[in-house]
Amino acid sequence: MLRLSVAVAVVTILLKGYAGWLTNSMGLISDAMESFVNLASASFALAMVTIAARPPDAEHPYGHHKAEYFSSGFEGVLIVGAAGAIIWFAVLRLVHPQPIEQLGWGMVLSVLSSVLNGVLAMMLFKAARMHRSIALSADARHLMTDVWTSVGVLVAVAAVALTGWVWLDPVIAIAVGLNIMREGFKLMWRSSQGLMDEALEPESLAALQAALDNYKARAPDGERLRFDDLVTRRAGQRLFADLHMHVPGDWSLQRAARLRDGVEQALMDAVPGLRVTIQLLPLNMEARAVLMEHEGGA
Question: Domains in the chain, start-ordered, CATH in brackets?
Answer without folding.
Answer: 2-195 (1.20.1510.10), 202-297 (3.30.70.1350)
